[in-house]
Amino acid sequence: MPEGADSPGTAEGKGDPSPSPKRALIVGAGIGGLSAALFLARAGWSVTLAEREPLLNEVGAGLQLSPNVTRLLAPLGLLDDLEGIAVKPGALRIWNGTRGEPLSRAPLGKSAMARYGAPFLVVHRGDLQTALARRAKAQAAIDLRLGLSVESISESEDTVTARFRLADGSEETHAADILVAADGVWSKSRGLLGMPSATRYSGKTAWRSLVPREQAPLFAREAEVNLWLGPRGHLVHYPVCGGREINIVAIIEDSWREENWSAPGDPVQIEARFLGWHRKARDLVGSAETWKRWALCDRPADARWSSRRTTLLGDAAHPMVPFLAQGAGQAIEDGATLAALLRDAQTPDGIAAALNAYQTIRLPRSARVQSEARRQALIYHLEGIPARLRDAALGLLPAGALLKRYSWLFDHDASAPAR
Ligand SMILES: Cc1cc2nc3c(=O)[nH]c(=O)nc-3n(C[C@H](O)[C@H](O)[C@H](O)COP(=O)(O)OP(=O)(O)OC[C@H]3O[C@@H](n4cnc5c(N)ncnc54)[C@H](O)[C@@H]3O)c2cc1C
Description:
Blueprint: E1 23-27, H1 31-42, E2 46-51, E3 62-65, H2 67-73, H3 78-81, E4 91-96, E5 102-107, H4 109-116, E6 121-124, H5 125-137, E7 142-146, E8 148-155, E9 160-166, E10 171-176, E11 178-181, H6 188-192, E12 200-212, E13 225-230, E14 233-240, E15 245-253, E16 263-265, H7 267-273, H8 279-286, E17 291-298, E18 310-312, H9 327-342, H10 348-380, H11 384-396, H12 401-405, H13 407-410
Parallel strand pairs: 1-2, 1-11, 2-7, 4-13, 11-18
Antiparallel strand pairs: 3-6, 4-5, 8-9, 9-10, 12-15, 12-17, 13-14, 14-15, 16-17
The structure holds flavin-adenine dinucleotide.
């Protein structure tokens, strides 16, 4: 049993301020859990971060970090850590996937920086998770525990307690002032907290591959985010890992579904799916030797996330299809807002009020991102005349208009929530 386990961080009566740091127990050390731990530690909380996996493997592929996210990572020192690892794309380019014609170009790079005061970055998920974990391990206020899978959660008026199973079959119990469930899209915590846990399959799967730069077609090596739109599918590609690897994601409409981030995908199957596409798109797909795939799902927005002592964060709260590239970003925003609201919460009632304010602020914003992402999928996968109309509309957009459309998303500062 680790030091302090089973004892809540406060022994004071309800309403008494306490000089000792408040204690948070976070379930899941993915992008959301790790960043929330760092934000909470900066807000003066002591954090136990319990992760099911025995190792934080560098699993996954590319993530886009838009200015609403990099703005939050900067004070944690993460932008310095990611220097030379994350790539700063100069533009977002949109192409017609079957004709190979350029449809639109949105400047990113310096333009995004000038407009939003924070950069637009693309990064390998493993690189971001490693950088966050390194920061967390260096913080005395954060106890990162690997190999702990949550089994039960119980809440009293002023304390929450969770039981975890370890790989050897033994158990550990931890208590804290709050519990934050950040255990991802297939969250077990949701069920333990009495929340609906079934996900909603989108009818689409994502296939991802990392191709060494020298093996990728020349056009794919540029420091740009590229989006190819076609009938019932689209492709996204950009460099990651300091430009050494090209991240390729192919989204197709499909009926396959499995709860797995990294199921193997057969290259022959995905190449066949893009046969009618432009040569460049086929070259891109053909340059990948191995593929991983995962089934895309989300969940209708909840009515609530928080109880008096518990709340949800990241994909456990608001899984979303990735067509606005905001899964990681919204998880990071959650942590920043939660910590800002908990900074001055000292009493049990104050903490409960902060958790309530957190859901009041974060639920509508993440619900909007969820629904805009779903809508985006419909637009991306149009066919025939609707697709022609979409392409014509994109072609008429003046420079800068595409970025302006996303101001509601990119302008937001989640670390300064208005109560
Ligand atoms: C292995 C993996 C690969 C991914 N690859 C991609 C990708 O290529 N592209 C992309 O856009 N998104 C990917 N994602 C999803 C992306 O990271 C999330 O959508 C986003 O970052 C939101 O983060 P999150 O912290 O809410 O969830 P996640 O990043 O999924 O983290 C959840 C964490 O909770 C842990 N966990 C789960 N169950 C338990 C339990 N019972 N007890 C304790 N801990 C538990 C998981 O091991 C994981 O570390 C991946 C996620 C994972 C876990």
